[in-house]
């Protein structure tokens, strides 16, 4: 029996136009009334997750920064896994030195930093999230004592090469792709799967009673860990090949049709 549902946002809950269908919202609200939380598990920063929850009209825990930050249903932080500022600065410097074409952003709680506000990758990410980055360095903000995530954006080949080099240079961080052109760098224990473990333990729910949806490499461990895990049809083949269940695409209301098929 399912007691909690975890879902990625971009490419999973949202369609290609960054929309959520009326029927999907209605179904999620029905689940909430039955006491089944619909937990957003995203690579986004916290201020990029909460507006989606508000659009859904639900009150539930939330996972942001690919698992580095977990909030309860009252938006109280119950887990925060942060890299040191020094580690983040070392990684950032290495990325820029390795490939100047890559856009590298730094995140801490609600702070999103960039070196260049005019970078095309950054501008596109701002459009996707509906948020705005600040130009500056993490050392300029003394109140932020740790970093939740670094995001590197660039063409696929550049990200391929960077990923290999970063894993060799910084073996003690968690590195994963959220899509072919995005590389996420987090605290070594920060992953969506570990956040799901933590939240289920916190709420007294067995992992066997979970359902999860996702479309990216960053979602894979969460999908595999869930009692019933689904990759979206629009997920890369390398993700779909490693899961047992496939949902329809995000443009075909994959979450909604799967939940209906499951009897919800």
SSE blueprint:
Elements: E1 4-7, H1 9-13, H2 22-33, E2 38-41, H3 46-56, E3 62-64, E4 69-71, E5 77-80, E6 83-84, H4 85-98, E7 103-108, E8 111-114, H5 120-129, E9 134-135, E10 146-147, E11 149-153, H6 156-169, E12 174-179, E13 182-186, H7 192-203, E14 210-214, H8 220-225, E15 228-232, H9 237-240, E16 245-247, H10 254-261
Parallel strand pairs: 1-2, 1-14, 2-3, 8-9, 14-15, 15-16
Antiparallel strand pairs: 3-4, 4-5, 6-10, 7-8, 7-11, 11-13, 12-13
Task: Tell me what you see in this structure.
The protein has two domains: 4-80 and 190-261, HAD superfamily/HAD-like (Rossmann fold), CATH 3.40.50; 83-186, Hypothetical Protein, Haloacid Dehalogenase-like Hydrolase, Chain: A, domain 2 (2-Layer Sandwich). Helices cover 36% and strands 24% of the residues. It is built from ten helices and 16 strands. It has helices spanning 9-13, 22-33, 46-56, 85-98, 120-129, 156-169, 192-203, 220-225, 237-240, 254-261, and strands at residues 4-7, 38-41, 62-64, 69-71, 77-80, 83-84, 103-108, 111-114, 134-135, 146-147, 149-153, 174-179, 182-186, 210-214, 228-232, 245-247. The strands form three sheets. The protein has an eight-stranded mixed beta sheet with strand order 5-4-3-2-1-14-15-16. Strands 9-8-7-11-13-12 form a six-stranded mixed beta sheet, with helices on one face. Strands 6-10 form a two-stranded antiparallel sheet. Helix 5 links the parallel strand 8 and strand 9. The mean pLDDT is 96.
């Amino acid at each position: 029996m399912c007691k909690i549902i975890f879902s990625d946002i971009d490419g999973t809950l949202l369609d290609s136009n960054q929309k959520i269908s009326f029927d999907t919202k209605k179904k999620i609200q029905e689940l909430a009334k039955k006491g089944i939380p619909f937990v957003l598990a995203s690579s986004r920063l916290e201020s990029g997750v909460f507006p989606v929850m508000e659009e859904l009209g639900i009150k539930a825990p939330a996972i942001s920064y690919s698992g580095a930050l977990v909030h309860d249903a009252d938006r109280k932080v119950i887990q925060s896994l942060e890299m040191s500022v020094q580690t983040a600065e070392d990684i950032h410097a290495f990325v820029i030195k390795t490939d100047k074409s890559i856009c590298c952003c730094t995140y801490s709680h609600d702070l999103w930093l960039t070196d260049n506000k005019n970078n095309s990758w950054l501008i596109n990410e701002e459009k996707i999230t509906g948020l705005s980055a600040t130009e500056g360095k993490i050392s300029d903000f003394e109140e932020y004592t740790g970093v939740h995530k670094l995001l590197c954006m660039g063409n696929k080949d550049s990200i391929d090469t960077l990923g290999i080099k970063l894993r060799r240079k910084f073996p003690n961080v968690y590195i994963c792709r959220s899509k072919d052109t995005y590389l996420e760098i987090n605290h070594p224990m920060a992953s969506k799967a570990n956040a799901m473990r933590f939240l289920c333990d916190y709420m007294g729910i067995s992992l066997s009673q979970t359902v999860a949806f996702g479309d990216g490499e960053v979602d894979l461990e969460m999908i595999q860990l869930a009692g019933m895990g689904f990759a979206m049809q629009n997920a890369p083949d390398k993700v779909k090949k490693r899961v047992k269940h496939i949902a329809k695409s995000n443009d075909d209301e994959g979450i909604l049709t799967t939940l209906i098929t499951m009897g919800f």
